[in-house]
Design goal:
Chain lengths: 311, 528, 384
């Protein structure tokens, strides 16, 4: 027991551990910010995993074509968006079951990216860091927050932008209405499924960014296991956060740290029970939902598809 | 049938104060004609009543005006211009607004957010809030812009609906069955508001209703519809309830029950109900000191105690939201009492346990059959055995032959119009679905029948049928609890009437001592 | 209601509406066939395009697939071996779907069930048949309990089971991983002469293995017959029995069901337990059938059979008998992909084809459903 605590503090004192924690949190948050908006609209997109993966692959392709990170980012965003597009069209125009579509898309992206990776073999290199002067010199955490690649810095304004979109614009008001009471929204003249699709596009864009960041700046190359379930953790973070953005950020930070904790331990010479740690985010989310079930409220119409004329 | 008053034909030159002119508007759904060459004119500065029983086509007509339905024939003229109203957004642009009965507010959002929904301009919270306060002042609709809609009473929610509609400054306002959730007092307030709305900038207001006296009190002119057609047009002054009723139904209305269906009982009528012997059978249903809190902690049932005898029809009056729904839920085994007891035929029944009430012999016709009365996706035959599948099963296996025979018998007996027992429930009309519920419940030979808003949304024939079935059940010795917000229906059928207010009984009257004024007061919440 | 011109005669106004226009259950056979044909063709065309674009020969890929799944000798046997667990998972999914519960955690339930079965198989001694029964029970109970967690959380804390079942999948693989940490759980002791300890269990002994038979040169475990029988039984229970009726009631309208005596908590939880049990059984059958891992359980044992089984149920529109056919289709695709790998063609293409086919198969029912409901809603609206 004492060993665990001392291990914990050792990790806390490690620069590398902080850096990886922030990096992983950022990846999660890229996916979760968009998915938060999508869930406020009443949709649940298991395909976030696929969006992240597509973003990762697309970015590597873009980078290997032009040696430019910006192009890589754009390709990644486009790839993430494409997955989101299929999810949105099939589930909220054709009314196909959103879970099946999500599952199928994940399989599709996994297979497709692996297949194309094998055939085309795009290469990339880990992007250099862009240290912010002065701030990155802060002991312990400076490098983690301000000494990463510029792709990561995108995560700072992103949640703010998404929050502003959902709470300060008409679009956001309609998205929230659609997630709580699609029938009323419809009668008020709002195109329910259109808003839902748009919220999913947003998730695709942010996840595409996250995937690009992951493959170009964190890992430096593409393998089909690069996302490895983080898409699901992102969804867990949204739920854990009670469908508030603040809670989602907290969730991503918490889960990101746990994941990083697990990864950092071997490097520091420890081998804590890695299975428990890997499972921790999911168990914590489940327990959190169980305990706070009555305080936390999901959007009323979450996972319920909308067709005019049906209840 | 000859219309009572001839109006100028619609071929005359359009009048300057004409806001809406519908010219031979037609809408068909397959072989069913919902609107048949309807001519209707709404004038500015006037409140126009569109009167007709449920199923007459008035709702479809309004849906055409508001853009939810596209007509198959005819033309719509707004302010003299011909228009195609394709969707609610277009209707809004043309200056047409509707105050919906339900389904237009989003509970978790605030009042001002709801009012802002559906527009297209940039969202400016401060501006919206100010506007809400403005309108609220002007029309006497006090409301707090930052209140959460989900916390409001039905009366206040309607205010939000009205403000939402008026915010866009529509020149044409449609009120769709607005008084169903209001106390008599609130209704009177609403009519005052209507006057202000109309007087202001000469708006045209349409009041859609199936209630005679409402239309008589609140409108300047009336159009009566029946079976999709306009059968009469008349200024309100100089018309009598029986004229209107006659037009609505197509023949002289003499039977009390039909008049009851049209709300043809004015507060000033002296009520002389037929003499009926007060039932003296044993007490079959007792609810003792029932207490129940709702999900948000509000007290729904506050020590309510009720007793119903065999063969008695106990009418429960009161505006919706005073505990009727919760009482029915408890008797449907859908809710558990916090404290108190329910006994049927002398034995206590556990509340909140699935099927316990049904097993004890309590039949329920719920207010919302889609919610807890039928399974839309199942067939008629299946719906007819939902509560007691053992009626058609042996050793756990359901016998399709017996099920079909059972269904055919009930379909005949209750005159359910359908293509056959295997048709899905969702394909039936509301009235027929209600017959299925009634058939099923009565076929279990219950000792108690709870009928909650049993004739809501039904046409005259179905209403009559319901009434006679309820009476017949009572004559057979069933204890009937009749819950209705339609006073006339209660007066017609009940032996005794109690009034619910805030989860308690506010007052009680025997059939032969009913005082309309007192009833109204009790319903409004004043002790009397 | 086209009533003749105002000639309504005196008499009781029993308004008899004309029979409502009931759209037939299947819009029209040609509509359905055309929709499916287009969708499937689309999926295959995209796949062919992908192969061509990356420099392959789509004709040879498809013929290899066909060969590998259906034509080459012995392939049917492999397909049947895969179809059995898929079918079992699908049947379980149908049960919870009919009850109105969403279970997307079959992958985890299958793993836990298989793990529990392996545990018993490794540590329990005794006569073969008895151990066999114990193993099967353990597998079923393991899967059932895993699904039961989600059911419990929904019924006592209001947590949506779609989320918990999903999250529990990740937890399941970690639990199994834990099990392989110690020889007292799942890990097999180091064998003489080999250097490293591999993460796998001991082989299931002869006495508990599912017998295999050979028909027309195809070898497969006999568990398939049990699975098909289960499918038939489930179809019967759902359509003909009171139990099945009540279950369907619950899924269609929980409140009406409650009024009619169907306790949502009891019946719904039972449905989830059964669903998990089927998934656990699928894992057990995979273990004892021999086609997967040579009678050994290992981490990652489930190879996405839980997910695929779920897909089978959904593509089969939750019909038990259709699930039999769909599970065979998916299984033959898998078999074909195994063959593809052996001939050097990129194996992943089958994942792509499978996913595209699933997406393609989702479209026609969705379109038809919306159309039918719209017609009905319009017919109903006519009466207001």
């Amino acid at each position: 027991m004492i060993a665990v605590v001392s291990e914990f503090f050792d990790v806390l004192g490690s620069d590398a551990a902080w850096k990886s924690a922030v990096a992983i949190t950022a990846v999660l948050l890229f996916g979760a910010s968009g998915e938060w908006a999508a869930e406020r609209a009443g949709t649940l997109n298991i395909s976030v995993e696929g969006m992240l993966l597509a973003g990762a692959f697309g970015a590597v392709v873009g980078y290997s074509l032009t040696e430019r990170a910006t192009v890589g980012l754009l390709f990644g965003i486009a790839a993430g968006f494409s997955v989101a597009f299929v999810q949105a069209e099939m589930s909220h125009r054709l009314t196909a079951d959103q879970f099946v579509v999500g599952l199928a898309l994940n399989i599709l992206v996994l297979g497709l990216s692996g297949f194309l990776d094998g055939e085309i073999g795009p290469t990339a290199r880990r992007l250099p860091t862009n240290d912010i002067p002065l701030l990155s010199d802060i002991p312990l955490v400076g490098e983690a927050f301000f000494g990463q690649s510029w792709l990561m810095y995108l995560i700072y304004p992103l949640p703010v932008i998404v929050w502003w979109l959902v709470y300060r614009t008409r679009w956001g008001l309609e998205v929230r209405a659609v997630g709580e009471n699609p029938q009323s929204a419809d009668v008020s003249g709002i195109d329910v499924n259109k808003r839902r699709r748009q919220s999913i596009y947003l998730a695709g864009l942010t996840s595409g960014m996250g995937g690009a960041y992951l493959s170009l700046a964190v890992v430096g190359t593409f393998t089909d296991s690069i996302v490895g379930g983080r898409g699901f953790i992102a969804i867990a973070a949204v739920i854990f956060g009670g469908w508030t953005l603040r809670g989602t950020i907290l969730g991503c930070a918490l889960f990101g740290s746990v994941v990083s904790f697990r990864l950092s331990l071997p490097a520091l010479g420890y081998s804590l029970n890695s299975e428990m740690l890997t499972a921790a985010p999911f168990i914590v989310t489940i327990l959190g939902m169980a305990v706070f079930a009555h305080r936390v409220r999901a959007p009323e119409a979450l996972t319920r598809p909308f067709v005019r004329g049906l209840r | 049938m000859e219309p009572l008053v001839t109006t100028t034909s619609s071929a005359a030159t359009p009048v300057a104060d004409e806001a809406v002119r519908l010219e031979r508007v037609t809408k068909r759904y397959g072989a069913v004609v919902a609107c048949d060459a309807v001519d209707l004119t709404l004038r500015r500065g006037a409140i126009h009543g569109v009167l007709g029983e449920n199923g007459a086509g008035k709702s479809t007509l309004m849906k055409i005006l508001i853009g939810l339905v596209t007509p198959d024939g005819g033309r719509v003229h707004i302010h003299g211009q011909q228009c195609d109203i394709d969707d609610p957004a277009t209707a809004a642009k043309l200056g047409i607004g509707m105050v919906h009965q339900h389904f237009s507010l989003v509970d978790p959002l605030t009042v001002w957010e709801n009012v802002a929904l559906g527009e297209e301009a940039r969202l400016r919270p401060a501006q919206v809030r100010t506007r809400v306060a403005e309108i609220s002042e002007k029309y006497g609709l006090g409301i707090d812009p930052d209140a959460t809609v989900g916390d409001l009473t039905p009366g206040l929610r309607q205010r939000v609906e009205i403000i939402k509609c008026l915010r866009r400054d529509p020149s044409i306002v449609i009120f769709d069955e607005p008084t169903s959730v209001l106390t008599p007092e609130e209704s009177a307030q609403l009519f005052t508001t209507l006057r202000r709305v109309v007087a202001d900038e000469g708006r045209a207001v349409a009041l859609v209703s199936h209630k005679l006296d409402e239309v008589l009190h609140a409108t300047d002119e009336i159009t009566i519809m029946r079976s999709g057609r306009v059968v009469d047009r008349t200024p309100t002054a100089g018309t009598t309830p029986s004229d209107l009723a006659k037009a609505m139904v197509g023949r002289s209305v003499s039977l009390r029950s039909e008049r009851a269906a049209f709300g043809a009982v004015a507060a000033t009528d002296t009520v002389t109900l037929e003499e009926v012997a007060a039932p003296d059978g044993p007490v079959v249903l007792t609810v003792t000191e029932s207490r129940l809190r709702g999900r948000d902690g509000d007290i729904k049932l506050d020590g309510l105690s009720v007793r119903v005898r065999a063969g008695e029809i106990l009418g429960v009056a009161g505006v919706e939201g005073n505990g009727q729904d919760e009482l029915v839920e408890v008797l449907s085994s859908l809710a558990r009492l916090d404290s108190g007891e329910v006994t049927v035929s002398g034995s206590p029944v556990v509340t909140g346990r699935a099927g316990a009430m049904a097993a004890a012999g309590v039949a329920v016709i719920p207010a919302d059959r889609h919610d807890s009365g039928v399974v839309l996706d199942m067939s008629i035959a299946e719906n007819l055995v939902l509560v007691e599948p053992s009626q058609v099963a042996a050793r756990g296996l359901m016998d399709p032959g017996r099920m079909r025979a059972h269904a055919t018998r009930l379909i005949d007996e209750y005159e359910i119009a359908c293509p056959g027992p295997d048709a899905p429930m969702w394909s039936l009309s509301g009235g027929n679905q209600q017959r299925v519920v009634l058939a099923r419940e009565l076929s279990c030979e219950p000792v108690v029948l709870v009928a909650a808003q049993p004739t809501r949304g039904l046409d005259v024939g179905a209403i009559e049928f319901m009434g006679s079935q309820i009476r017949a059940a009572a004559e057979r010795g069933v204890a009937v609890l009749l819950i209705s917000s339609e006073l006339e229906e209660l007066l017609e059928l009940s032996h005794r009437i109690i009034v619910l207010s805030d989860g308690q009984i506010a007052g009680e009257m025997q059939r032969d001592e009913v005082d309309m004024d007192r009833l109204g007061l009790l319903m409004g919440g004043s002790a009397a | 209601m086209s009533v003749d011109a105002d000639t309504s005669v005196a008499g009781p106004t029993t308004v008899t509406p004309t029979s409502p226009q009931v759209p037939s259950r299947f819009s029209s056979w040609s509509e359905i066939v055309v929709l499916y044909a287009i969708s499937i063709f689309g999926a295959l065309a995209i796949s062919a395009l992908l192969v061509t674009v990356t420099g392959g020969e789509w004709r040879s890929v498809f013929s290899a697939l066909l060969d590998g799944s259906l034509l080459a000798p012995g392939r049917w046997g492999t397909t049947i071996g895969s179809a059995t667990p898929l079918l079992l998972v699908a049947l379980g999914t149908i049960v919870n779907a009919k009850a109105g519960y969403v279970n997307i955690g079959q992958e985890g339930q299958l793993l836990i069930g298989g793990g529990a079965a392996a545990f018993v198989g490794v540590h329990l001694g005794g006569p073969g048949p008895i151990v066999f029964v114990a193993i099967v029970l353990a597998g079923i109970v393991g899967g059932a309990l895993w699904a039961g967690i989600a059911a419990g959380l929904r019924n006592w804390r209001g947590v949506p089971e779609v989320l918990t079942t999903l999250l529990l999948v990740s937890v399941a693989s970690q639990v199994i991983g834990l099990g392989f940490r110690s020889e007292s759980f799942l890990l097999a002791p180091i064998t003489e002469g080999s250097g490293t300890q591999v993460s796998q269990t001991l082989q299931m002994p002869d006495g508990v293995r599912i017998p295999r038979i050979t028909i027309f040169g195809n070898e497969f475990p006999v568990s398939v017959f049990a699975a098909v029988v289960f499918a038939a039984l489930l179809a019967l229970v759902l359509t003909r029995t009171v139990v099945g009726f009540r279950l369907r009631m619950l899924g269609a309208n929980a409140r009406t069901a409650m009024r009619s005596g169907v306790d949502s908590v009891r019946v719904g939880s039972a449905a989830m337990l059964i669903s998990g049990g089927f998934a656990g059984l699928a894992g057990t059958v995979m273990l004892l059938g021999g086609d997967f891992g040579g009678y050994r359980f290992s981490p990652g044992f489930s190879i996405n059979f839980g997910w695929t089984g779920l897909l089978v149920a959904l593509v089969a529109r939750e019909r038990a008998l259709a699930a039999v056919a769909v599970s065979f289709v998916f299984a033959s695709l898998m078999t074909g992909s195994g063959f593809l790998a052996a001939t050097g063609v990129e194996r992943r293409i089958t994942d792509v084809v499978q996913a595209l086919l699933v997406l393609a198969l989702l479209i026609p029912p969705a379109v038809l459903f919306v159309r039918t409901r719209r017609r009905a809603a319009a017919a109903r609206e006519a009466r207001t």
